[in-house]
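User: what does the whole thing look like in 3D?
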Amino acid sequence: MDERMMADELAAAAKRGQFLDVVRSYADFDCDAFLQGVQPADVERVLAKPVLNREDYLTLLSPCAAQYLEPMAQRAHRESVRNFGYVMQLFTPMYIANYCENGCVYCGFHQGEKIVRRQLDMEEIRAWGRHIKETTGLESVLVLTGESPKFSSPEYIREAVAVLRDIFASVSLEVYSLTEADYRQMVEAGADGMTMFQECYDEEAYAPLHPFGPKSNYAFRLDAPERAARAGMRTIGLGALLGLTNWRREAFFTGIHADYLQHKYKDIEVAISTPRLRPCVAGFQARSPIDDTGLVQYILAFRLFMPRAGITVSTRESREMRNHLVYLGVTKMSGSSSTAVGGLEAEKDEESQFDINDTRTAAEMAQMLYDEGYQPVYQDWQPLTRAMP
Amino acid sequence: MDKQVKDTLRLGGQEFISRLFLGTGKFRTYALMQKAVQASGAQVVTTALRRADPDFPQENILSYMPRDITFMPNTSGARTAREAVRIAHLAKAMGCGNWIKVEVISDNRYLMPDNFETVKATEQLVKEGFTVLPYINPDLGTATRLVEAGAAAVMPLAAPIGSNRGLRTRELLRILIEEIDVPIVVDAGIGKPSEACEAMEMGADAVLVNTAVAVAGDPVQMAAAFKLAVAAGRQAYLARPGRVLSGEASASSPLTGFLHMPHEEVAVHG
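Assistant: Here's the predicted 3D structure for the full assembly of 659 residues, as structure tokens:
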């Protein structure tokens, strides 16, 4: 994507209003002081409220609120069951390419890493898609490409969407940030969702973590979910990579990003993911590690703040952790995951973006859910562009 | 009792004994949902078509539908009239019959129905020959337009969907019950059998329940409780409730007392 196109998109975003305005409105706000200043009485006041505002959400992310995890969990469970029932949506990621032009210092796929680069052609994508569908029954797929507009052009992604749309009921994208016009093309080809991890909402910390490549433009990436919503994507996923900087602050900005989008684009289904930095070939060490208690606190606080929003947990988390999280507000889990291009078969001789922690198959995930008293949902959308009379 | 006229609900060219409609989402398993449907005695059952997966029979919710019910797929997930119409077409193509519950929701925070788009979808689907039951915010203008468009029933919400808050829209429901000449099916928000009973006492023709049954500790027992509550409410409505104490205290200084008093003793209100 050339600089001029990015500049045009950003000028349009500045005119209509964007989440960057919200982030910058907090420039003088001392988030750490607020978090440290929260007292038990503040947490109790928030927990007594039926509807939470942004300040309440931040209160529940404070170190002090960690003492209230059990009452938070009870309420999060009630809210989740009321809104979503005893069901869990399952999906599978599909890495169709891993070329990348970014220099993210924490990632196993970034440009400088000496790993095998691959890109599947349309026949390979079709064959692998059919294989997944036949062996797992999953109807929801998340397509990932790595971030290379040069190798994985919008046209390539659009073609892949069209191929997979004939196989799966729902096709979502996790690719580099596109223009609004490109997102519209993806929607027309049959994509119904997109996920964009900002990775780091802290604008100052962002730059050294993303020294070059398409991702190095903080504002353009931050606005991508909004462009996708405007283009007609039904589901929008957000996330910060927890561990890069102060996770409580990052959790806060992820949450208010979701709130901002849901308020402005009322018909979208917004969801967050809570990825924690895992070991990868880049060998990056987390600066602000988030432990299990922190992860649970984040998920519970967000569930109470936005009772109807989605929460996705990936196979980065352990089997035990994922089993427990079923009760705490998570709505979507990946099953049968592989982060290698071409899937599990290819994985033996290839490096992956990050190490998978929970290696269960979709069938094993479904059985676990049944054992926990939850109905696995393989399909939650009908492709309206397919087989129309 | 033998003199009692058979009380049935006539809807979409069919006759039903049960006035409890059941939704099928949120259950722990499809098998449990099936048992709850049976215990509820419901003859009309609704399912989100977006969950139907004919390619995968063992995980396809449609495989668990009892055969002796009227199946009413719904357009859950539709954000516009156009999407609702497309989902209705898909339902027909999957062999789901002629009934469709039109549900157009363009607000994903509270899941409030979009009345405007709902009217548009209803108009088109009725023209195409569907039996249309639209789900709406209880608004008389909208309901009137839906009747003009040919809706088989009108389904106003009692409270936001899934909220289990009860008859929050009571006064608006009462207006629809009085003014609308097609069946009124109170849909969404009913959390307890007593609330379903109250809706029926008010004169609703039927109620639709889902979350309150699906997330109950024992969904099958709760389904049976709703069956009894709906029947009780209907019977009470038919029995025409007698004088109900209003709860307002009688005034200490009557306003018409002067009519019964000797002329000179009439108190002057000041």
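In plain terms: Chain B touches chain A through 36 residues (CB under 8 Å). The longest helix of chain B spans residues 219-238.
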